[in-house]
Amino acid sequence: MGEKWKGGDVGHSIGGGQKVRLLKKAMEALADQEDLVILSVDSYDLIFAGGPEEILKKFKQANHKVLFAAEGLIWPDKRLTDKYPSVRSGKRFLNSGGIIGYAPYINRIVSEWNLHDNDDDQLFYTKIYLDPLKRETLNMTLDHKCQIFQNLNGAVDEVLLKFGTGRVRVRNTMYDSLPIVVHGNGKTKMYLNYLGNYVPNAWNYENGCSGCDDDLLDLTQLEDYPNVLVGVFIEQPTPFLPEFLHRLLTLDYPKDKLQVFVHNNEVYHEKHIQTFWEESKNVFGSFKVVGPEENLSQGEARNMGMDLCRKDATCDYYFSIDSDVMLTNRQTLKLLIEQNRKIIGPLVTRHGKLWSNFWGALSLDGYYARSEDYVDIVQRKRVGVWNIPYMAHVYLIKGAVLRKELKERNYFVLEKLDPDMALCRNAREMVRESKCGTLACIIGVFMFITNRHDFGRLISTASYNTSHYNNDLWQIFENPVDWKEKYIHQNYTQIFTHNYLEQPCPDVYWFPVLSEKACDEIVEEMEHYGSWSGGKHEDKRISGGYETVPTDDIHMKQIGFDKEWLHFIREFISPVTLKVFSGYYTKGYALMNFVVKYTPERQAYLRPHHDSSTFTINIALNNKGSDFQGGGCRFHRYNCSIESPRKGWSFMHPGRLTHLHEGLPTTNGTRYIAVSFIDP
Fold first, then answer.
1. Which residue among 302, 425, 428, 671 is the active-site one?
2. Is 88 a catalytic residue?
3. What is the rounded CA–CA span in Å between residue 598 and residue 551?
4. Is the full-model pTM beyond 0.85?
5. GO CC terms for this protein (predicted)?
6. Beta strand pairing status for 358-359 and 390-391?
7. Are 620 and 633 in contact (CB under 8 A)?
8. In this structure, which long-range contacts are made by residues 369-375, counting pairs with CB atoms below 8 Å and at least 24 apart in sequence?
9. Residue 563 is inside which H or E element, if any?
10. What residues contact 127, with CB distance under 8 A and at least 6 apart?
């Protein structure tokens, strides 16, 4: 309207009189137009669910000259409660956020205004309405059953979404009405944002998201890609950190346009950061690391990272990502920038769980509450760009927003809130004085989450034990997808899709199962433990204390890996067993799981023997030629030898009766194999 707001802090106290004064001024030129219907509503916190034709139709059906919005709560003077006319059904109290009426009657009401801009508009209208004579003379009433106006304050539980064909409406279940003007008064702004994700045609089942392609930024039309500061936060011991850092390095975005800020709070991860720095220090535009020696809190570190972008006029975007986010989509950064929102994050979830990086709603105390659409968004049954009250772990913020709306430095520290909760609350409840004159008002910044693409996943850090040499090996239960990506052979699935396995000897099957990394880390773990058995017959580790055919080995139990190894057998060996030994259903259980070390000096070979198993697996953990010479396995019954084992490939063969076998001599170097006697 061309004026500064002088109507007071209406979010927290009385005020709003300036609206009446402005309406009074506007009505002076319209007062004589008897057939003109005037609609006056608050502008910043409402949604129109229908058009003018429906509004006019419902207004005329009301058969009054003036209709005010109604609500179940009285404001601002509760002492006036008894003066209100009683109603059998419906909302009893006036709300000034919605008024509709014929121009002459509206003019007669507002012409009585002679107060100040910061006086209360609702109290002004209330006193006129409560005057029985004026109420009758001006033919006024309230929209008791929310036919036109729906005030959400105190009525959120009455309201739900009604999905029609190609359109979504708000339905009041108390009165079975479809209100047109939906007003997020009081502390219902976040619920209004939720409704705005659908109403009236933002999203529906037939067409999906109608506004997702609005105002897109086409990066191909820019002369140069925007500059992005990537803030990386390692706040707790995190599994698969080298893989996380590698994914940053492989993002499909010009690396000279990326500046990297890393806050590492864990001494354990300094070796990983050092390796990453050495690999990428000359790749990115700049690279800054703040380590645990700085003793920064999470909030302080995040403030520092964001402030680097805020202070740099050339920083177009700030991309914050925590170490527990695995971005599997290399296009993530481009896709977020192209969506062209002030604050936006990609949806990431924990594999197989409903845990994600956003909340669809907040409880009364400001913590998690599940929105009606949360599960569908997480499972991508509803796809779009969603206005939400809270996000964490990974998000993109425009640099211009940091230098304007979010220009203060301390957004991540607020009371006792976690840093991300503090940021989101500060963004939602951002105070901007420039629009409000001398009195501050709240004008938040919308935050969005997009699930239009599959961006990646969250990993669990809760039970990460760093007491081992290669700690990620123990993550098969907690983070099975990342474990599989790191430790299972890249061609493993082709066993089932392309019959990718061999049978070098009768009923001896040979197939890829472990990655190079898995083989190396298992060997490293065993050598770090170091207590090799020496290949002696006396063995206290087994029942009876005597091993007939001993090997120089370390049991999986000795390094605390037996439970994980048995799970590996059930998940990745059992399916192969069913494929090659059709009709046999393995229990996937083994008492003996161990790594054998062959050297010419300690134990070069293993004499002929049967295994105490229904079937045995034997996985080569290093390479013939580069790591050792000789070795292999000979099956006596078939006079068949396999002398060139492949790293990461497993033999699978029957254990008892038919497959007498021996380990061929290792003539040079050190040979490692992992063995399990399955279904003993």
1. 671
2. no
3. 8
4. yes
5. endoplasmic reticulum membrane; rough endoplasmic reticulum
6. antiparallel
7. no
8. 371/194, 372/160, 372/161, 373/194, 373/197
9. helix 562-568
10. none
